[in-house]
Write a structure and sequence with these properties.
14 helices; 489 residues; binds ligand LLP
């Protein structure tokens, strides 16, 4: 499609602007309502099963995992649905765009996949709160039986607020500060020892809190997770964990503090977006070896924590990716052989695919060599593509007009940075102004990493409930929220 064709298509389509565009962005008929009901699609949407296609992979043949049901589906008439609701109808009903849209049933299904996989093992699913810290989602995960993995005092406070059992919570991090450690010691959560100074601080916190702390040693297993360097943590040059050759030093230090520290386990976390379960297996073999060494010195340790990191199918290519069962099956025998309690720390694989960022097209333009779809969402709401060059699948929520040409576009936001893109070189039908456009797999590390750059205030969040109603689960931030930080100074 040429530039002039794109421009003329735009001009001809601009007359079809929905009325909602002429209203101020924060007003519409649902703005006061926290829940509302939309008519379910007359025809049930086609279920897009994420199937394992390649027989040579390690994917489980178990029907429970291979017939995985996903919440976002395109129906035959070309409309995107979240469960049984048209995303377009939701988009036109909510108070402002962009917004995050989740499926509560999908969150449940993702947790159930882990629970099924863990059957027969003593285990804790420690949900990594950093992936998504929406309080309503946390409460739901807690009700489903998850524990929580924390990396700051505020994440700990939020976990307690959401009602998580402290005995199913783990406090991680390479730079935990004393006051947060005191809070963790008082609450009675597990704490991972990350370095010599971290051990000193945990001992100090235990004394201040007057409590003996259950600790795990975070050991760097020196395994290459084969992921983007920014999300790799288990390789030797990472800032996380203790050097494995220093293990004896740490065991001696723990022995010197019997009133403050009780060593209960060993932890590793290799990295994030891992798509080969053999990597977890390699690390588990190394960790079991350390556990044998630690037990040989008289420590009665019970927990092996293999961290999080399982990747998801961001490309929607139907590629064969390991599922929770594949992950757990690679370590099951090792765990059973030592009668261990297995802790896992999933974030992305529990929450990423439950959500889309729903945007509206502001316009289409070209610079002569590149075509751009400009949307109202941006790197402020969703930074992963800009920060990691991450791919997140993009599609329109409604069927394209018959005459819309398929063109290669960069999908960009309105933020004053050339780094502000949500997708590069995407083949899409040329959308009319006002068309809905979603960025998929936005449940993990999207809202939790959102900023207010360019004073684009953080968007509201909604989920589709089990009964098909839409509920707001977080208010959008407003200009007034920003101004409040300066009151009374
Ligand atoms: N446990 C520890 C110690 C971690 O550091 C992390 C993530 C997890 C568990 C959860 O990993 P997951 O299952 O979600 O992969 N912002 C990046 C991801 C950073 C992950 C940091 N650590 C992104 O957007 O891809």
């Amino acid at each position: 499609m040429t530039a002039s064709m794109a421009a003329s298509h735009l001009l001809s389509s601009s007359t079809s602007l929905p009325n909602i565009l002429s209203r101020p962005s924060n007003q519409n008929r649902f703005s006061q309502n926290l829940t509302f009901t939309l008519k379910a699609a007359a025809k049930p949407p086609v279920i897009r099963a994420v199937l394992s296609q390649n027989p040579t992979t390690t994917s489980s043949p178990d029907s429970k995992t291979s017939q995985f049901q996903h919440c976002f589906t395109k129906s035959e008439d070309g409309f995107l649905h979240c469960e049984s609701l048209k995303v377009q109808d939701i988009m036109e009903s909510v108070e402002r765009r962009p917004f995050y849209l989740y499926s509560k049933p999908q969150i449940t299904r993702n947790v159930e996949a882990y629970k099924d996989a863990l059957e027969g093992l003593r285990s804790v699913i420690g949900y990594a709160i950093k992936a998504n810290n929406n309080l309503k989602i946390l409460e739901h995960l807690r009700q489903l039986g998850c524990g929580a993995v924390l990396v700051s005092g505020n994440e700990l406070r939020l976990a307690l607020h959401a009602g998580f059992d402290p005995k199913r919570c783990i406090f991680n991090g390479n730079g935990k500060i004393l006051e947060d450690l005191v809070l963790a010691a008082e609450a009675g959560v597990f704490i991972n020892i990350d370095s010599e100074f971290d051990l000193e601080n945990i001992v100090a916190a235990a004394r201040i809190a007057g409590k003996r702390v259950n600790v795990l040693l975070r050991i760097n297993p020196d395994v290459d997770p084969q992921v983007h360097p920014y999300v790799a943590t288990g390789n030797k040059n990472s800032k996380f964990g203790i050097r494995n050759e220093k293990l004896q030093w740490f065991l001696d230090a723990v022995k010197e503090h019997p009133n403050e520290l009780k060593l209960v386990g060993a932890h590793c976390h290799l990295g994030s977006t891992i798509t080969k379960v053999d990597i977890f297996k390699d690390a588990a073999v190394i960790m079991i070896n350390y556990i044998d060494q630690i037990r040989a010195q008289g420590f009665e340790i019970d927990y092996l924590n293999i961290g999080g990191g399982l990747g998801i199918d961001y490309y929607h290519s139907g590629a064969v990716l390991p599922k929770p069962r594949d992950l757990i099956d690679t370590v099951r025998e090792l765990v059973l052989s030592r009668d261990l309690n297995l802790i896992i720390e999933p974030g992305r694989s529990l929450i990423a695919n439950t959500c889309c960022l729903v945007n509206r097209v502001t316009g289409v333009k070209t610079n002569g060599s590149k075509n751009f779809i400009v949307i109202d969402g941006s790197m402020a709401e969703l930074i992963r593509p800009s920060l990691y060059d991450a791919y997140q699948h993009i599609e329109l929520v409604s069927p394209a007009p018959v005459d819309a040409e398929i063109t290669t576009f960069d999908v960009v936001g309105p933020v004053c940075e050339s780094a502000d893109f949500l997708g590069k070189e995407r083949e899409l039908p040329t959308p009319a102004k006002g068309t809905g456009l979603v960025v998929h797999d936005a449940g993990a590390y999207c809202m939790s990493m959102a900023s207010t750059y360019n004073l684009k205030m953080r968007p509201p969040e909604y989920w589709v409930e089990d009964d098909g109603t839409v509920r707001k689960i977080r208010h959008g931030e407003t200009f007034e929220d920003h101004v409040r930080f300066f009151e009374g100074l």
